[in-house]
Predict the structure.
Amino acid sequence: MVDYWSLYSKKVIDHFQYPRNVGEIKNPSGVGRVGSPVCGDIMELQIKVEKKRIKGKTEKIITDAKFRTFGCGAAIATSSMITEMVKGKKINEALKISNKAVAEALDGLPAIKMHCSALAEDALKAAIDDYLRRESSRTKKNANYHEQRRTNE
Ligand code: FES
Protein backbone atom coordinates (compact mmCIF):
# COMPACT_ATOMS: atom_id res chain seq x y z
CA MET A 1 0.00 0.00 0.00
CA VAL A 2 1.29 3.49 -0.91
CA ASP A 3 2.03 5.74 2.06
CA TYR A 4 0.49 8.98 0.71
CA TRP A 5 1.28 10.88 3.93
CA SER A 6 4.99 10.52 3.15
CA LEU A 7 4.45 12.70 0.06
CA TYR A 8 3.86 15.70 2.34
CA SER A 9 6.25 17.68 4.54
CA LYS A 10 5.72 17.88 8.29
CA LYS A 11 4.71 21.54 7.87
CA VAL A 12 2.00 20.70 5.31
CA ILE A 13 0.59 18.04 7.61
CA ASP A 14 0.72 20.43 10.58
CA HIS A 15 -1.13 23.23 8.73
CA PHE A 16 -3.65 20.69 7.39
CA GLN A 17 -4.35 19.21 10.83
CA TYR A 18 -4.21 22.50 12.74
CA PRO A 19 -5.11 25.22 10.23
CA ARG A 20 -4.45 28.79 11.37
CA ASN A 21 -6.85 31.67 10.81
CA VAL A 22 -9.95 29.72 9.76
CA GLY A 23 -13.16 31.75 9.71
CA GLU A 24 -14.40 35.22 8.90
CA ILE A 25 -13.36 38.77 9.77
CA LYS A 26 -16.02 41.17 11.04
CA ASN A 27 -16.25 43.97 8.46
CA PRO A 28 -13.40 42.78 6.23
CA SER A 29 -11.55 45.34 4.09
CA GLY A 30 -11.42 42.91 1.16
CA VAL A 31 -12.79 39.48 0.23
CA GLY A 32 -11.42 37.17 -2.44
CA ARG A 33 -13.35 34.11 -3.64
CA VAL A 34 -11.83 31.80 -6.19
CA GLY A 35 -12.40 28.33 -7.59
CA SER A 36 -9.94 25.93 -9.17
CA PRO A 37 -10.75 24.94 -12.76
CA VAL A 38 -8.57 21.85 -12.19
CA CYS A 39 -10.55 20.26 -9.35
CA GLY A 40 -13.53 22.50 -8.54
CA ASP A 41 -12.33 23.34 -5.02
CA ILE A 42 -13.29 26.76 -3.60
CA MET A 43 -11.39 29.18 -1.38
CA GLU A 44 -12.40 32.42 0.29
CA LEU A 45 -9.82 34.71 1.88
CA GLN A 46 -10.65 37.84 3.84
CA ILE A 47 -8.26 40.62 4.83
CA LYS A 48 -8.34 43.54 7.23
CA VAL A 49 -6.29 46.53 6.11
CA GLU A 50 -5.39 49.41 8.40
CA LYS A 51 -3.49 52.58 7.70
CA LYS A 52 -0.48 52.97 9.98
CA ARG A 53 2.25 55.58 10.24
CA ILE A 54 5.63 53.98 9.61
CA LYS A 55 8.78 56.14 9.48
CA GLY A 56 6.66 59.25 8.88
CA LYS A 57 4.71 57.64 5.99
CA THR A 58 1.13 56.34 5.97
CA GLU A 59 1.21 52.68 4.92
CA LYS A 60 -1.65 50.27 4.24
CA ILE A 61 -0.93 47.20 6.37
CA ILE A 62 -2.76 43.87 6.35
CA THR A 63 -3.41 43.40 10.05
CA ASP A 64 -5.57 40.26 9.83
CA ALA A 65 -6.40 37.49 7.35
CA LYS A 66 -8.81 34.58 7.57
CA PHE A 67 -9.92 31.87 5.18
CA ARG A 68 -12.52 29.23 4.46
CA THR A 69 -11.74 26.45 2.02
CA PHE A 70 -13.83 23.70 0.50
CA GLY A 71 -10.81 21.83 -0.71
CA CYS A 72 -8.14 19.23 -0.32
CA GLY A 73 -5.56 19.03 2.46
CA ALA A 74 -2.99 20.97 0.40
CA ALA A 75 -5.56 23.74 -0.20
CA ILE A 76 -6.19 23.96 3.55
CA ALA A 77 -2.44 23.98 4.33
CA THR A 78 -1.64 26.63 1.70
CA SER A 79 -4.56 28.85 2.81
CA SER A 80 -3.40 28.54 6.40
CA MET A 81 0.20 29.39 5.49
CA ILE A 82 -0.67 32.34 3.23
CA THR A 83 -2.81 33.94 5.97
CA GLU A 84 0.22 33.66 8.30
CA MET A 85 2.61 35.08 5.68
CA VAL A 86 0.43 38.06 4.80
CA LYS A 87 -0.17 39.44 8.29
CA GLY A 88 1.84 42.61 8.95
CA LYS A 89 2.69 43.06 5.26
CA LYS A 90 2.13 46.24 3.24
CA ILE A 91 -0.28 45.81 0.32
CA ASN A 92 2.51 46.01 -2.27
CA GLU A 93 4.55 43.40 -0.37
CA ALA A 94 1.54 41.06 -0.09
CA LEU A 95 0.99 41.27 -3.86
CA LYS A 96 4.46 39.78 -4.36
CA ILE A 97 3.66 36.57 -2.42
CA SER A 98 3.65 33.84 -5.04
CA ASN A 99 2.28 30.33 -4.85
CA LYS A 100 5.91 29.11 -5.09
CA ALA A 101 6.78 31.13 -1.98
CA VAL A 102 3.82 29.58 -0.12
CA ALA A 103 4.85 26.07 -1.19
CA GLU A 104 8.46 26.79 -0.13
CA ALA A 105 7.28 28.08 3.27
CA LEU A 106 5.57 24.69 3.68
CA ASP A 107 8.83 22.89 2.77
CA GLY A 108 7.39 21.94 -0.62
CA LEU A 109 4.33 20.33 -2.16
CA PRO A 110 4.05 17.36 -4.52
CA ALA A 111 4.00 18.66 -8.15
CA ILE A 112 0.44 17.40 -8.60
CA LYS A 113 -0.64 19.68 -5.69
CA MET A 114 0.98 22.92 -6.89
CA HIS A 115 -2.37 24.10 -8.32
CA CYS A 116 -3.70 24.14 -4.73
CA SER A 117 -1.08 26.75 -3.80
CA ALA A 118 -2.07 28.75 -6.93
CA LEU A 119 -5.60 28.88 -5.50
CA ALA A 120 -4.23 30.49 -2.29
CA GLU A 121 -2.27 33.10 -4.28
CA ASP A 122 -5.32 33.85 -6.46
CA ALA A 123 -7.57 34.21 -3.38
CA LEU A 124 -5.14 36.67 -1.76
CA LYS A 125 -4.85 38.72 -4.96
CA ALA A 126 -8.65 38.75 -5.34
CA ALA A 127 -9.02 39.98 -1.73
CA ILE A 128 -6.47 42.77 -2.34
CA ASP A 129 -8.21 43.72 -5.64
CA ASP A 130 -11.51 43.89 -3.77
CA TYR A 131 -9.92 46.11 -1.09
CA LEU A 132 -8.42 48.44 -3.73
CA ARG A 133 -11.77 48.63 -5.57
CA ARG A 134 -13.58 49.53 -2.33
CA GLU A 135 -10.89 52.12 -1.52
CA SER A 136 -11.11 53.78 -4.91
CA SER A 137 -14.94 53.97 -4.81
CA ARG A 138 -14.71 55.46 -1.28
CA THR A 139 -12.17 58.04 -2.54
CA LYS A 140 -14.41 58.90 -5.54
CA LYS A 141 -17.45 59.26 -3.25
CA ASN A 142 -15.44 61.59 -0.97
CA ALA A 143 -14.24 63.62 -3.96
CA ASN A 144 -17.83 63.88 -5.30
CA TYR A 145 -19.08 64.92 -1.87
CA HIS A 146 -16.46 67.67 -1.56
CA GLU A 147 -17.08 68.77 -5.16
CA GLN A 148 -20.83 69.02 -4.46
CA ARG A 149 -20.20 70.98 -1.27
CA ARG A 150 -17.98 73.38 -3.18
CA THR A 151 -20.61 73.94 -5.91
CA ASN A 152 -23.35 74.43 -3.28
CA GLU A 153 -21.35 77.10 -1.41
S1 FES B 1 -7.11 19.29 -5.27
FE1 FES B 1 -8.31 21.09 -5.46
S2 FES B 1 -7.28 22.63 -4.43
FE2 FES B 1 -6.15 20.84 -4.07
Q: What stands out?
A: DSSP finds five helices and three strands in the chain. The pocket of FE2/S2 (inorganic) cluster is lined by residues 36, 39, 41, 71-72, 74-75, 113, 116, 119 (CB under 6 Å). Residues 7-148 form a domain with the Sufe protein. Chain: A fold (CATH 3.90.1010.10). Residues 32 and 126 are 4 Å apart (CA to CA).
